[in-house]
Design goal:
about 750 residues, Neutral endopeptidase, domain 2, 29 helices, 11 strands, Peptidase_M13_N, metalloprotease
Length: about 750
């Protein structure tokens, strides 16, 4: 991944103009920059779009800095001055700005207020399937109706699940926890006691398998369960929510609240006990067994796993037998201890726990009486107030719950097929350059070169969006089971939950879908999936300042999105990626985190690197690690010691940055060789090579508080942007040549580190 989390008081007007490719230029028109210059043929693009982009890039620069001394401040100083960190946030970056712009556009698409042209005019934006996502958003925005319906939706939901012990008419004696658990696991993605899922079989990447794992708890961190104050707040919150769901108003509300309070207190005493048997991620191991063997292993608990799993899947007409294999992702001990804990717990506590977990996840979709109390609790727990507008919240829910359909909307309005094709061609050129580079280096053995080149040639490219989103027949068939009404927000969420479960469980009858994506199309990020050897570049990142459609010079896009493509490719050959072969199979177990041990092991030893190549690779990566270890951040407003960058923790990303920009530059120069020198932008007085590196840097512009920098240095695998830029560029011979940096300049040290 090239960027971490994604989720200006006044945006630069130019970015708004540039944002969608149709506003930059008619996407379908294949106009060459050379046709757009004036008659003087002075090598400068005079087209209006070139002028606008030049203005945008110039505003991002700070000419007070020498690019050969501090390229980050030179390239991003102007951007930093014209932007500020939004309220309640600790950082803001060019990628955050792009993500925000994507979201703003999507809200316009959902609300029907977008007035621009369509990138794609062949596919309807009002088909029945597309209307489902628009109707969902509309149902969320209908606050008047949501308020009018009050607690009725959640009451109906509770009744369908068999009732709740907080109601006076609930009969705990006839209630069966096993049947209730079967029902909630079958119909909803329920995190109760344990989870039932379907995922890729660790021993056969082409097949799916049922997985069993521990369930999440009511609070986001285990530590909260040892915090008495947090538990008190949780009991108070759950009591008030339960009171709001009662069928009838009690005669004595004070007494009833005391009764419910005691019941909820018992619920969280039970959940605290669960937290004590919880397996941390670092200690998880997977076990692959048949249901029959799992029954034998946990027979002391008298819980029939075969019955539980077959009942769940039977709800979707899927036959499961005792010989069916499952993967237990937590541990046998957790499963056994969990069921023994259940057996030792009174039925009314189990009933209240199950129903609380179901209700808790649905509170956000109710009226203000519920959501306001939920927001108060969240602030009490985390200290962060909730201040999103209704529009922001409804967009968030729509995006989270119907992400692929939101993505389908995005690509119909804001993404062009010509851009997808161009990026795919760029990726092919970059892969070719990587292969040529590997062939030319002298520190890798011939055997290792062959393994690396085979893997590079086998990389799967996924650019823009999954193809089914533009196949109207497949698209409508895929989502036909979702029932969406523009006046039933709560029921829409329930319908989607059931649909989600159905799609998940149906995977057990199918082979693994090689076309499945790890992200939604409108996401502003990029990924390398090490266990699939695939690169994913969503349409959301193929916008300025990462990608500029024609007629803009290719130099900028090669520097920006070209670096992203090269970065993700190089991840396949960094400290982790090198341990996986062309099929995403693990070559060696050494030095892998416990969670990676469920990965398929490679059988072909031809994929392994030679010991000599590994040793030389380690020597080079150690040099890069030491380089970044020397970087420090000093807080000018504090007497505290400076913060040291962790060269080990950021090593994989630093390798990818260096390899990415090098391959992108070589690919660009090869493109120029085939197509001729480009026109450059007006006003900037920059060569094509300089524009390449400025384009590379300006997509990394970033603002951050000292607190955010401190947290990032502790936890983030990316170095702060200032060092990603200066550290990478100081190792680039091509950069120093482009900006004519002297041999004594900071950005052109004599000793440079090169991995790829």
């Amino acid at each position: 991944m090239i960027f971490k989390a994604l989720y200006s008081s006044k945006m630069l007007q130019i970015l708004t103009i540039l944002f969608i490719c149709v506003n930059l230029y008619s996407c379908g028109e294949d106009k060459d920059v050379s046709t757009l210059a004036n008659d003087e043929n002075d090598g400068i693009c005079k087209d209006n779009h070139c002028v606008r982009v030049a203005d945008y890039m110039k505003k991002g620069l700070n000419d007070a800095y020498d690019p050969c001394e501090n390229f980050y401040e030179y390239a991003c100083g102007g951007w930093k001055k014209s932007h500020k960190i939004p309220e309640k946030k600790e950082e803001y970056s060019a990628i955050n700005e792009l993500s925000d712009n994507n979201d703003k556009l999507l809200r316009q698409f959902l609300e029907g207020t977008y007035k621009g042209e369509l990138c794609d005019k062949k596919h309807p934006t009002d088909s029945p399937t597309i209307m489902k996502v628009k109707d969902f958003y509309t149902s969320c925005m209908n606050e008047e109706l949501i308020e009018k319906r009050g607690s009725k939706p959640i009451r109906d939901f509770i009744d369908k699940l068999g009732g709740w012990d907080v109601d006076d008419d609930f009969d705990v004696d006839t209630w069966d926890w096993k049947k209730t658990l079967q029902r909630v696991h079958a119909e909803y993605p329920a995190e109760i006691f344990f989870t039932i899922d379907v995922d890729v079989d660790p021993k056969n990447k082409k097949k799916n398998i049922i997985t069993i794992d521990q369930a999440k708890l009511s609070m986001p961190q285990i530590a909260y369960f040892t915090n008495k104050e947090a538990l008190v707040k949780l009991v108070e919150y759950s009591t008030e929510i339960a009171m709001k769901t009662l069928k009838e108003k009690p005669d004595d509300e004070v007494d009833k609240k005391k009764e419910v309070h005691q019941k909820m207190k018992a619920v969280f005493e039970f959940e605290t006990a669960i937290s004590k048997i919880f397996i941390p991620k670092s200690a998880k191991r997977f076990t692959r067994v048949t249901l029959e063997k799992l029954n034998e292993a946990t027979k002391v608990t008298q819980f029939n796993w075969t019955e539980h799993i077959t009942t769940i899947f039977k709800d979707y007409d899927i036959e499961i037998s005792k010989d069916t294999h499952v993967v237990v992702l937590s541990s046998d001990s957790y499963i056994e201890e969990m069921i023994n804990l259940i057996k030792a717990t009174p039925k009314n506590v189990l009933s209240n726990y199950i129903m609380w977990k179901m209700v808790k996840d649905m509170v956000a979709f109710l009226n203000k009486d519920f959501t306001d109390r939920n927001n108060v609790f969240r602030k009490e727990l985390t200290g962060v107030p909730h201040k999103k507008s209704r529009k922001e919240m409804c967009f968030k829910y729509t995006d989270e719950i119907l992400g692929p359909l939101v993505g389908a909307l995005f690509i119909r309005y804001a993404f062009c097929l010509a851009d997808k094709q161009e990026v795919e061609e760029m990726m092919e050129l970059i892969i070719d350059e990587f292969i040529q580079n590997v062939d030319d280096v002298n520190w890798i053995s011939e055997h290792t070169k062959n393994a690396i080149i085979k893997k590079a040639k086998a990389v799967v490219m996924k650019v823009g969006y999954p193809n089914y989103l533009f196949d109207e027949t497949v698209f409508s068939q895929r989502y036909k089971e979702i029932e969406i009404h523009d006046n039933k927000f709560f029921e829409n969420v329930v319908s989607i939950d059931r649909f989600s479960n159905h799609r998940t469980f149906k995977k057990i009858t199918l082979d693994v879908d090689p076309h499945q994506w790890v992200s939604v199309p409108h996401m502003a990020n990029a990924f390398y999936v090490v266990t699939k050897n695939e690169i994913v570049i969503p349409a959301g990142i193929l916008q300025p300042p990462f990608f500029y459609a024609k007629p803009l010079p290719r130099s900028i896009s090669y520097g920006a999105i070209g670096h992203v493509l090269g970065h993700e490719l190089t991840h396949g050959f960094d400290t982790l990626g090198r341990k996986f072969n062309k099929n995403g199979e693990l070559i060696a177990k050494r030095s892998l985190q416990p969670l990676m041990r469920a990965t398929v092991l490679a059988k072909n030893k031809d994929d392994q690197w030679s010991k000599e190549s590994i040793a030389r690779f380690s020597s080079r990566t150690n040099s890069l690690k030491e380089q970044f270890n020397k970087y420090r951040i000093t807080d000018e407003h504090s007497d505290k010691n400076s913060l040291q960058i962790d060269g080990e923790n950021t090593l994989g990303e630093n390798i990818a940055d260096a390899g990415g920009v090098k391959m992108a530059y070589k690919a660009y120069r090869n493109w120029v060789k085939d197509n001729g020198e480009e026109y450059v932008l007006p006003k900037l007085n920059k060569t094509s090579d300089e524009l390449f590196f400025i384009g590379y840097a300006q997509k990394e512009c970033h603002l951050s508080t000292m607190k955010a920098l401190t947290d990032a240095i502790k936890d983030d695998v990316h170095a702060p942007s200032m060092f990603r830029i200066t550290g990478t560029m100081s190792n680039s011979v091509e950069f120093a040549k482009a900006f004519k940096c002297s041999a004594t300049s900071t950005m052109n040290p004599q000793n440079k580190t090169s991995i790829w």
